[in-house]
């Protein structure tokens, strides 16, 4: 499914309304306002959340759920340091003199070494390009890394990038498989299962006897991280009022950015990859201490017919938040009979086909830039620890400022992100040799790309109807992970051409910018309720970068106002 999603109520059939209304405290109705009868009061679900479901109880839940994103930050960035390279030369026996008075001299290189034999009569005999079998590593920056331990150098250097790629493939798999299981069996249960999976795989990786097992466990770490982050984000979103979901989506990225910074700090203080992997594994125990006390999503409970458990959540919220919940209240949710949809439904009509291509391009390009810039930190001039801390701090500030930037419009915010990122990456190509110019431009690129991820998520959420919103986000997020797998190999293009990574990043930004020109604007617009309304509302054509024209109203579908949706 997807790592972040908004669950919105669907329209119910009148037959379901009539039968359900007589049987439980939480019912599927089409009532949009409070209804009072002689026996009880009826509240809409989102109205109930606003009345009793916002307070100290939810603030505590949101805080603990936001900490789960730190696991994603630690694991996404771990290979930058666990696979770090501080330089190496071939290990040679050392100069030797034999009994017949001839001397052998060794001249070590990075992947080969030369020998020169000097005989007693003064003649010499040279042997060149002998491949190394052992290496001596510079441990001044990294004391212990996976490539030091398993000699992943020279013709095996690609195996370091492969570990990041396998992790991303595991993340992609987790988005699909564990996301679907979360929809079937509940967010809380999958959060627990995914946390246990990540803990077990991380502990195994810390004690791996060989590279093959380490990489295999990286796949399962990726699956677990996807499951924990997705389930936690969905829970937080479904505990919130509709108007708070966009804000939570942007602010939740800040705990990820904090972990981004802490990754380098922890490895600097203890530069040993096995202990570092152990620290990451033990951090997952934190989630297990409170997941048992975490309530299940009331929206998921209602959609699954578990009405008593959902009412218990609202009663607990009312008691802790000191809000009044009438004893005879009936809470209703507008839902429809379940209809299954496939990815092909996202491309079944002309406008949706064009919209799908645009959105997938945006997801792929923003992910290629973001993860590529993150993994490329080792190629920047200066200390990798300082550079990582600076880029993480820049990302933290950018995620805060994005709350206001997105008010200029979804499309224009995305265009601005790609435009500035493209220019900054191109500028780095001409700033090679200047430390501060390179760092400042790299920071600028990271500053605009990081919130770009959030902008694309919010835009995708508002472009697609409720019945396929999860599917659309899952498809986009999955493609983003595949782009992340490709991005792991971008830093290794430096030997081909020193500025090659920045050319790739600027090309990705240019493609993303052109794709965003065709993106319909969704700010302050009603959300589509069906594929048909999405087809009519989303006119895919080359739009102006100027503020949205009000003539665009002629493309919108006349619908009943939906106060429960978040358009902020």
Characterize the structure shown:
With 568 residues, the chain is of the alpha+beta class. 58% of the residues lie in helices and 7% in strands. Strands 1-10-3-2 form a 4-stranded mixed sheet. Strands 5-6-7-8 form a 4-stranded antiparallel sheet, with no helix packed on it. Strands 4-9 form a two-stranded antiparallel ribbon. Helix 4 runs antiparallel to helix 8 and helix 6 (158-185) runs antiparallel to helix 7. The longest helix is centred in the middle third of the chain and has 29 residues, at 211-239.
Give the gist of this structure.
The chain is of the alpha+beta class and 568 residues long. The protein has helices at residues 14-21, 45-52, 56-66, 68-82, 146-150, 158-185, 187-206, 211-239, 245-251, 253-269, 273-291, 298-303, 307-321, 350-375, 384-405, 410-429, 435-463, 466-487, 500-516, 531-537; strands at residues 26-27, 35-36, 41-44, 88-90, 96-97, 103-108, 112-118, 124-131, 135-137, 329-332.
């Amino acid at each position: 499914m997807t790592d972040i999603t908004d669950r919105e109520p669907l329209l119910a059939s009148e037959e379901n309304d009539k039968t359900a209304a007589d049987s439980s405290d939480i019912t599927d109705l089409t009532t949009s306002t409070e209804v009072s009868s002689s026996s009880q009061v009826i509240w809409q679900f989102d109205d109930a959340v606003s009345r009793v479901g916002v307070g100290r109880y939810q603030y505590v839940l949101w805080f603990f759920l936001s900490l789960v994103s730190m696991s994603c930050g630690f694991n996404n960035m771990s290979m930058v340091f666990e696979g770090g390279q501080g330089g190496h030369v071939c290990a040679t026996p050392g100069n030797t003199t034999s009994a017949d008075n001839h001397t052998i001299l060794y001249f070590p290189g990075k992947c080969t070494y030369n020998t020169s034999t000097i005989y007693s009569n003064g003649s010499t005999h040279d042997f060149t390009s002998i491949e190394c079998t052992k290496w001596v590593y510079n441990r001044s920056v990294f004391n212990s890394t996976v490539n030091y331990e398993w000699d992943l150098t020279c013709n095996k250097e690609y195996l370091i990038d492969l570990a990041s790629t396998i992790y991303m493939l595991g993340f992609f798999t987790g988005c699909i498989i564990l996301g679907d299981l979360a929809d079937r069996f509940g967010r809380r249960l999958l959060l627990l299962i995914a946390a246990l999976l990540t803990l077990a795989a991380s502990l195994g990786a810390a004690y791996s006897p060989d590279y093959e097992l380490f990489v295999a466990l990286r796949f399962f770490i990726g699956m677990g991280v996807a499951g924990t982050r997705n389930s936690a984000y969905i829970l937080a979103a479904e505990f919130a009022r509709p108007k708070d979901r966009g804000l939570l989506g942007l602010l939740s990225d800040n705990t990820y950015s904090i972990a981004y910074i802490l990754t380098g700090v922890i490895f600097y203080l203890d530069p040993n990859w096995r202990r570092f992997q152990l620290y990451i594994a033990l951090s997952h125990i934190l989630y297990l201490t409170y997941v048992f006390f975490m309530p299940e999503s009331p929206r998921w409970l209602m959609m699954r017919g578990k009405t008593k458990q959902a009412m218990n959540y609202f009663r607990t919220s009312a008691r802790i938040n000191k809000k009044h919940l009438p004893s005879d209240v009936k809470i209703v949710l507008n839902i429809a009979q379940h209809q299954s949809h496939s990815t092909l439904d996202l491309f079944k009509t002309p406008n949706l086909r064009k919209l799908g291509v645009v959105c997938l391009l945006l997801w792929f390009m923003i992910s290629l830039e973001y993860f590529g810039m993150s993994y490329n930190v080792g190629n920047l001039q200066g200390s990798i620890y300082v550079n990582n801390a600076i880029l993480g701090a820049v990302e933290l500030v950018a995620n805060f400022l994005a709350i206001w930037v997105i008010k200029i419009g979804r499309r224009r915010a995305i265009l601005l992100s790609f435009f500035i990122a493209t220019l900054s990456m191109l500028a780095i190509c001409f700033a090679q040799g200047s430390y501060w110019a390179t760092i400042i431009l790299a920071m600028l690129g990271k500053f605009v790309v990081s919130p770009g991820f959030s902008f694309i998520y919010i835009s995708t959420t508002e472009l697609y109807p409720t019945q396929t919103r999860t599917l659309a986000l899952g498809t986009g997020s999955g493609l983003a992970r595949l782009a992340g797998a490709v991005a792991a190999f971008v830093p290794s293009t430096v030997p081909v051409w020193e500025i090659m990574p920045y050319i790739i990043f600027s090309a990705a930004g240019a493609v993303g910018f052109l794709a965003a020109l065709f993106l319909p604007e969704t700010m302050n617009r009603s959300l589509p309720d069906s594929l048909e309304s999405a087809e009519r509302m989303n006119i895919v054509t080359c739009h102006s970068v100027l503020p949205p024209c009000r003539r665009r109203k002629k493309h919108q579908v006349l619908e009943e106002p939906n106060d429960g949706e978040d358009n902020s």
